[in-house]
Amino acid sequence: MIVETRIGSDLQEAADWLQRGELVAIPTETVYGLAGNALDEQAVVKIFEAKERPLYNPLIVHVANSGQVSALVQEWDQQVQALMDAFWPGPLTLLLDRSPAVPDLVCAGLPRVALRMPDHDLTRLLIEQCGFPLAAPSANLFGRISPTTALHVLDQLDQRIPYILDGGPCMVGVESTIIGREQGKWKIYRSGGITQADLELVIGPIEMITQSDMPVAPGMLPWHYAPRTPLALNEPPPDSGDRIGWLRFSTLSPLVPGEWQFVLAPDGDLYTAARRLYAGLHELDALGLDYLIAESVPEKGIGRAINDRLKRAAMVRPQ
Ligand code: TXA
Ligand code: MG
C-alpha cells in the first residue's frame, strides 16, 4: 500500500501512529530502526512487509525500562544484570529466554528474544509514551545499506511507512553487538558498538562466533548491508570498469579523483569511522559508478564491526 511518508520530530505524532498499529522509523544511537508494537502481531507483520524481510529473520525488541524487560523474558541472573547496568542504555543486544508474552513472529520461533535499551532520549521517551516495547530491525530494505539519518530512511522506505521520527544522525553508526549464553558460555553473535574488550571487563571471557557456526542468529546472513553498486574489499577485481569509487579509512588516495572517494576517519579514529560508515556507502552508491572498493580498517575494537559489515557488503547476493 502506498502512503505519504512524513519526516518530523513530533513525539506525539509518532506515538499516535504506533498506538494505531502502524510503523514509525525511529532514531537510535546505532542506526535508525523500523518500529512497530512488539506485542501486536499485526504490526509486526507490517515490519516484515515494509522491509521485504523474510519471516525467518527475527527482530530486536527495544525497551525503555526494566518493567518492560520483566514482561518479556524469564528471570535473569546477576551477570545479565551486570551487563544491563554497564551497557544500557547502549548498543548491546542480549538474547534472553523469552516469556509467552512475546509473539512467535518477533523471535521467528526461536527460544530467545533479542532485547536492547537504545541510547537515544527521543526514542526512549517514545517507548515510555506508547507504553509497549518496540520491535525494530534496521530501517532499510532487506539486505541493503543501513540508515544513519532520517533521509537515508526516506531513500529506501518512502511511501511504505507514514512517519520518520528525526532524531539527527546516529552517534555510533554501526548496529548493536548481539550476545547470549550457550551452556553457560558467553558468545558474541554479531560484533557492534560495544567491543569484546568492553564486555570482558564485566563478564570475563566471551567468544566471537564465526559465520560458519551460527545457526542461532539466522539473520546474520552473509550478504547484507550492500550498496547497489558492486563492492569489493581492498583490490579492484579485473572486470571492475573504469569508474571506481573508494571508501578509504583515513587518507585520500592521490591516484583517484577526490569526488570518487570518501574518507571515513580523517582523524584516524575507529569510532569516527563507524559513525560515518553507512553515510559513506550511501554517498558513494549515489554516484552511480561502476564499482566501489572499500579499504579494510584496523581489525581491533569497533573496527571489527566495521570490517564485518564491509565483508558482508562485498558478498555476491544470491538471486
Ligand atoms: O543496533 C541495532 O541492533 C539496530 C537498531 C535499530 O536497534 N537493529 C538491528 O536490527 O540491527 P536487525 O534486524 O537489522 O538485526 C538484528 C539481528 C538479526 O541478525 C537477527 O537475526 C538477530 O538480530 N536476532 C534478532 N532476534 C533474535 C533472536 N530471537 N534470536 C537470535 N537472533 C536474533
Ligand atoms: Mg539490519
Describe this structure in words.
This protein is an alpha/beta fold. The protein folds into 2 domains: 6-208, Alpha-Beta Complex (DHBP synthase), CATH 3.90.870.10; 231-314, Threonylcarbamoyl-AMP synthase, C-terminal domain (Rossmann fold, 3-Layer(aba) Sandwich). It is built from 10 helices and 15 strands. It has an 11-stranded mixed beta sheet, with helices on both faces. It has a 4-stranded parallel beta sheet with strand order 12-15-13-14, with helices on one face. The longest helix has 17 residues, at 270-286. It is globular, with a radius of gyration of 19 Å. Bound molecules: threonylcarbamoyladenylate (TXA) and magnesium ion (MG).
Which structural category do the helix and sheet elements fall into? alpha/beta
Multimer state = single chain
Mean pLDDT: 94
Any idea what the CATH superfamily of the largest domain is called?
Answer: DHBP synthase
Provide the CATH top-level class of the largest domain: Alpha Beta
For the record, the CATH architecture of the largest domain stands as: Alpha-Beta Complex
Number of self-contained structural domains: 2
Number of strands: 15
Radius of gyration (CA) equals: 19 Å
The major β-sheet equals:
11 strands, mixed
Order of helices and strands: EHEEHEHHEHEHEHEEEHEEEEHEH
Adjacency order of strands in the biggest sheet: 1-8-2-3-7-4-6-5-9-10-11
Shape: globular
| CATH-defined fold name of the largest domain | DHBP synthase
Uncertain runs: none
Please give the alpha-carbon distance between the first and last residues: 25 Å
